[in-house]
Structures
1.
Amino acid sequence: MSSYLRLSGINKTYGDFVALDNVNLDVAKGEFVTFLGPSGSGKTTTLMIIAGFEQATRGSVEIEGVSLSGLDPQDRNIGIVFQNYALFPHKTAADNVYFPLQMRGVKRAEGLKKAQAMLELVGLEGFAHRYPKELSGGQQQRVALARALVFEPDLLLLDEPLGALDKNLREQMQIEIKRIQRKLGVTTIFVTHDQTEAMSMSDRIVVFSKGNIEQSGPPLDIYHRPTTRFVADFIGESNLIPGHIANAAEGVVESPVLGTCRYLTNGQPSVSNGDEVAVVIRPEHMKLSRNPIEGRSNARMTIDTIVNYGDNALVIGHAGEQPIRVRVLGADVVILHEGDECCFSWTDDAVFLVTS
Ligand SMILES: Nc1ncnc2c1ncn2[C@@H]1O[C@H](COP(=O)(O)OP(=O)(O)OP(=O)(O)O)[C@@H](O)[C@H]1O
Ligand SMILES: [Mg+2]
């Protein structure tokens, strides 16, 4: 991948506190990258450093090989939408969008024309003359998006821009942002702690934890091949079951809970015989049955709780001390009851290992 934006060895400390610890990241031109991670993991700090509102303690930010250090935020040609990056209340939508052009010395007539075109792109034709207080939350965010894009930024940074919106509007805006981003081809970093949002919008997800990048990859890779316990646990639901490698060459792990468990060696972390690992099996890749199912690996569990979602149900139980979660189709759940002992089963290709 050729790198457009490059973060190299970024460190950020506040007194003794290390907010970012050696963050390295390459983003390709036109890529839509999402930073995903728990609260306090360093997502906003990283964006602020890229935008120039914060200085890194160490490390560099480059666009096309040119360092941004020493450039003030307004000289970086970066479009920004933050959750609370308010519009100017005394300017109309059109004047809000015109503002960054005005800062760049664009004449009013020409600037307003561009602002109008951008408002159309975000679906707000006819709203140009309105003041922010005359717009809904979603419309205000669209104006903010138009304002961030009108000057054709090298980079678009979005920090939880949809956090304040209700679920329907949020989903609608997710689709809108994706559409606009594709249309303009602008390199984008989007911050969220909503994993479905990250899964559905991104070319690539970068998972942050405690000031570090834990893993970076296409959404489905992150989902199907998490490389650490943290990612396996944070993205989607997981069963993380302790075991040790019995035969690394043939893909066999021994686990008190699962017994002898086979896995496909392809795409797994490198392991040696005897290594302690966590076996990961997603709840939706397990089945429940009264008796062992032939052709699948089976183990026994006791059902503690059944959480019904209508079209599917989450069955939470235990095998010895180990909690087990299985997602079953709604129709299958009627044969199961809390307190029942049953079999859970899986296939080799549903098994992956994490080692750290
Ligand atoms: N000015 C500051 N002084 C001291 N600590 C700070 C400062 N700014 C951020 N931090 C700390 O740095 C860490 C990373 O903060 P950051 O805002 O980047 O987290 P985040 O991943 O964006 O979290 P959230 O999802 O809650 O927005 C946090 O522990 C935070 O308390
Ligand atoms: Mg944040």
2.
Amino acid sequence: MIDQHGGPFGVGERVLLLDQKRRRYLVELTDGGEFHSHAGFVPHRDIVGQAEGSVVSSTKGAEYTVLRPTLEDFVLEMPRGAQVIYPKDLAPICILADIAPGVRVLESGVGSGALSMTMLRYGADIVGYELREDFANRAVANVRSFLGPAALDRYRVKIGDSYEGIDPTDGPFDRVVLDLPEPWRVVPHAETALRPGGILVAYTPSITQAAQTREALKGRWTDTRTIEVLHRGWHIDGQAVRPDHRMVAHTGFLSVGRFLGQGRSRREPAAAASPAAEREDQGSM
Ligand SMILES: C[S@@+](CC[C@H](N)C(=O)[O-])C[C@H]1O[C@@H](n2cnc3c(N)ncnc32)[C@H](O)[C@@H]1O
């Protein structure tokens, strides 16, 4: 578990080493361990007992600043099974799904656990459905490593196929959050697992997946939207102030809808008459 209060580094914790070119290395400190790079090595004992922000030198003179990883650092550097959702989309998903302490979430697929640990950080109580046992184990290990064993009380991962259904004894849920190839196949099951007013969010890399998901969200759903989050860094150095030459131009689309409840269906709004339709026109979150 990451110490959020800045005590000295101890054996068993993960630290982030930043080199002079701002390359980042996630390292687990062990008794007698060494961090090796092209520039020699740093014995872990040189880091243990130091405060955050300390600078350590390798045997060939390279300098590394040592910090505790943030959730963003951890998600980008942690061991992966499946491809993770990137930080630029993780926080918007939590806002769109309105994740808060005690909110009951059905998540599928769980993959490497990046989205799980973000929602757990926001206080969610998660049941995860994941097809692959090795990925499920990786996700649980990542959650334990970053958030500590207590977070596992709010995180139960089942090996299962969410296209086949959601076990009624796992629910009811306040949210269904999906990152798998065919989220529209989970929508009918979400309609039995979600409470009225519940929210479904689906992350999809392609717009055709988003469109198919939106098609499934017709009927018993309202306030349906699809957005894409663009993130552009800026180079700021004295008078040299300009957008970065490179950006991550695309990751995925976020589609969201609110469940009306069994037996209810949306009355189609007159064009741009409802706040949801207006928001959709304006493209807001
Ligand atoms: C892209 S990964 C999810 C990554 C995860 N959101 C993260 O941030 O680490 C997609 C996952 O969905 C799982 N999956 C695919 N189809 C599934 C299904 N029908 N039921 C459950 N899991 C499924 C895959 O095994 C894979 O682990």
3.
Amino acid sequence: MLMCRDLARIASDYIDGKLGTTDTLSVKMHLLMCRHCRSFIGNLRESIQLMKGHSDYRMDEDYARRLDRAVEEALNNPGGS
Ligand SMILES: [Zn+2]
């Protein structure tokens, strides 16, 4: 039987879908019975999605593009406008 501390250890793998069929089933069985772990998994999933959302955000590319444009404009107008 999967214990709460076992579940905490493999929770991120479970959310990422990296667990095997047997482990996934054990986690699901445990979640059916344990409200504590249900909310734990829920919170973990939310924070993982938040992190993934941040890494998908292409701030660097956008910033680099704006920087390029600013440099180009500065080169085309040496005296400033
Ligand atoms: Zn539990």
